[in-house]
Amino acid sequence: MARLGFGTLLLYSFFFSILRTFTALDTINPIQSLRDGETLVSAGQTFELGFFSLADPNRRYLGSWYKKIFPRTMVWVANRETPLANTLGSLNITAQGNLVLVNVTNYIFWSSNTSTIAKDPVARLLDTGNFVISDATDGNPENFLWQSFDYPDNTVLPEMKFGVNLVTGHETFSSSWRSIEDPAPGQFSVHLDLRGYPQLFLKKENRIQYRAGSWNAVGLTGTPVLKPNPIFTFEFVSNDNEMYFKYDVPNNSILARYTLHPSGLLQRFQWNERANDWVVIAAAQTDQCNNYAFCGAYASCELNNSPVCLCLDGFMPKSPRDWNMLLWSDGCVPRTPLDCVNGDGFLKHTGIKLPDTSSSWYDEKIDLKQCHNLCLRNCSCSAYANLDMRDGGSGCLLWFGDLIDMRRLGAGGQDLYVRMAASELEKTEKKRSSIKKILGIIFGSVAEVISMLMVFCICWRNLRKHGMLKKIRRKNDHCEGREEEMELPMFDLTTIVDATNNFSSSNKLGEGGFGPVYKGTSSEGQEIAVKRLSKSSGQGLREFKNEVILIAKLQHRNLVKLLGCYIHEDEKMLIYEYMPNKSLDFFIFDQTRRKLLDWCKRIQIIDGIARGLIYLHQDSRLRIIHRDLKTSNILLDSDMNPKISDFGLARIFGGDQTEAKTKRVVGTYGYMSPEYAVDGLFSVKSDLFSFGVLVLEIVSGKKNRGFCHPDHDRNLLGHAWILWTNETPLELIDDCLRDSCIASEVIRCINVALLCVQKRPEDRPNMASVVVMLSSENSLPQPKQPGFFTERSPPEADTSSNEHQSYSANEISLSLFEAR
Ligand SMILES: *[C@@H]1O[C@H](CO)[C@@H](O)[C@H](O)[C@H]1NC(C)=O
Ligand SMILES: *[C@@H]1O[C@H](CO)[C@@H](O)[C@H](O)[C@H]1NC(C)=O
Ligand SMILES: *[C@@H]1O[C@H](CO)[C@@H](O)[C@H](O)[C@H]1NC(C)=O
Ligand SMILES: *[C@@H]1O[C@H](CO)[C@@H](O)[C@H](O)[C@H]1NC(C)=O
Ligand SMILES: *[C@@H]1O[C@H](CO)[C@@H](O)[C@H](O)[C@H]1NC(C)=O
Prior knowledge:
Elements (H helix, E strand, L loop, with lengths): L5 H17 L4 E2 L5 E2 L3 E3 L5 E7 L6 E7 L7 E4 L12 E4 L5 E4 L5 E4 L9 E5 L5 E5 L10 E2 L7 E2 L5 E4 L8 E6 L2 E12 L5 E6 L2 E8 L18 E6 L3 E7 L7 E5 L5 E7 L4 E7 L15 E3 L7 E3 L3 E3 L2 H5 L7 E3 L9 E10 L6 E4 L4 H10 L3 E5 L10 E5 L5 E3 L5 E8 H23 L1 H20 L2 H8 L2 E4 L2 E6 L3 H7 L8 E5 L2 E7 L5 E6 L8 H13 L8 E7 L2 E7 L6 H5 L10 H21 L3 E3 L8 E3 L5 E3 L6 E3 L5 E3 L4 E2 L6 H6 L1 E3 H17 L15 H10 L17 H14 L10 H9 L38 E2 L5
Parallel strand pairs: 24-32
Antiparallel strand pairs: 1-10, 2-7, 3-4, 4-5, 5-6, 7-8, 8-9, 10-11, 11-12, 13-21, 14-20, 15-16, 16-17, 17-18, 19-20, 21-22, 22-23, 24-25, 26-27, 28-32, 28-33, 29-31, 30-31, 30-33, 34-35, 36-37, 37-38, 38-40, 39-40, 41-44, 42-43, 45-47, 46-48
Helix pairs in contact: 10-12, 10-15, 12-14
Bound molecules: 2-acetamido-2-deoxy-beta-D-glucopyranose (5 copies).
One 2-acetamido-2-deoxy-beta-D-glucopyranose (NAG) binds next to loops.
């Protein structure tokens, strides 16, 4: 090459550029550079490499993409942080084998910094998407002097070795783009972490956000779906020279990639020919249990449990107060302190995503028995497990220090043996075996129970027929509920009459769903609120009992507390704690009072309502659907803390029940979800819809129903959606909040609210994710068009024309379709 004269060189390059115009090449060499406008195409026509720009045409990048896929999907960018300013750049390979990206004055914008000197270098774009430099004089074409697969950006392609070269110390990791328009490294990255037993981490800056887990020879612990299958293979290689993960899709006609979105979402995509689009096959962060260390130390995250975080057996919350407030990050501590010298034991936990292995030690050759002994002897060893899950398990993995980031997976999980004090171990094992025994007895005598129940039912019917039950129950000095007694004080009428000044109008607080509410002061000076159910009210005995049973069982700082009740023939009353600040609608829809609730207060109110709802939906012993959430049912205490009230329409769901249907649609227009208003279907997701409406009302200070806008006839949801799509969501905000609000929080609230009012229940988040979304800084999913965004209400019941005269009329809960 060196002997070629300058003239010949020019001739060559002229010849090659003509050639490139007609046929796409997959290589460049020192005499033929790649200019902006030209591209390399891999031999199988899968990938293409060249210059491109994103949003800004004056920022030119060199990178590669799928040749046949439109719109263009980038897989690699060379000069991520140093774009060229014009379209006159070129990619050259120097005679030593260094790739350089230069402008016309030969200023170097990017260089491969190839460390080995080549005799006859050539750069080639392979069909895997790998852009490689090799030496044509080297007999082994697989011997790359440099390869783009060592420097991925946001995309991990099949066959890429993802990890660390122990000889050179080079780490291959992936980092997100700064934004979809800027390929410079963003906040998120995925690494193979070599501390302890290697594991895959997703990090935001330096904080771990998600742990895909470590390799157990079958898959990654904690990510059972990542198991190799005929379409998708996955392996972990660990030897003296290198340590890496690699996946592959053996069928070349299937295009697959892992991409780390600027928001931190890690997803596996596959190209779907028929849909002509990328399909998400798997996503790393699917639920709250995937948040790193979500439950703190010695606790496991159990998605089907409420609350989701549970201390391991034999452990208790480090800070019970925080734990009960759903603040789990402090985790758990041993119930009985460890006593290494006098002997500890190990309790087996099954179906677990093994904890973080950053401070672990491992040996492939030791069996479980030896592993146990090793751990027992070393007082700082907190747990052990098998390393290799094949053939019933082998190898040994020991943990030192706290056990964090566990979740219960059931079938896909592993066995973990956790150290605990010998005395505690004994207790826990006894408890476990007695639970087993009890279960055995229960199942063993199901037949007996059924026959007993039958006898009981027959007796019950007879008793009822003869009116005996009434008498028996009347004797009870407690409010009666369904067919069970309630431990709830019965107030007597004179006490109530005295307290409310004989229900004087000056004591009247307002009109609730089913009758007036009065303020009262008991003889001991306690302030109470008495809800007197009007005889003509829609709330029959059924709703009344319902409310009594429900509220008596519920205890949460964001739910109003029931103090007692009164029931005699037609007269039914409920006695609640008194809320001095009335309800939310009293403030946010009032021209002057609205100013008393600044942004900070409103955020606290939204958060409080959400916490109350989580409790109703999942953390109380029952699953309760409120069915009538609205501003007038959110009461405020003296510190403006919100309390959910009015459970007259609430429904209790059994353990596995998630949805029910009713012919009797009750609730309040403007807050009802489409599937409930139209089909009578309700679930926790219908409460989510009402919650979304509530949030928009709190943020905007406007009512969903009766909302008017000069430019369109949408309701508040529709208006919020228009502003959202116009990227001007801040215009929604109540004028009086403009000074106190924090723009990012407002946008986050509106985003969450719009997700809650999605048309399809399955598109709405659950309450627990709402709380996480409101408090985290992660980016949120984009909402789609909400349900019920044009209609103000179902037409047959439209009373919006009355709106101006009678503000409370529409606020009263309606019973739409009485039982047919
Ligand atoms: C790169 O190639 C172009 C066109 O072949 C040439 O003009 C330029 O001098 C080369 N620059 C370097 C640094 O090799
Ligand atoms: C090439 O890039 C350098 C550095 O940005 C710049 O100073 C120079 O003016 C550029 N040359 C041309 C012709 O744009
Ligand atoms: C190549 O080396 C230069 C100078 O050390 C450095 O600034 C640049 O980031 C390196 N390029 C790559 C792709 O590593
Ligand atoms: C590869 O995938 C394509 C399309 O999905 C399919 O038609 C073909 O049969 C597969 N080839 C093999 C060898 O499995
Ligand atoms: C326990 O194991 C740790 C970690 O391997 C080690 O540093 C420590 O020396 C061991 N302690 C004893 C008493 O063997």
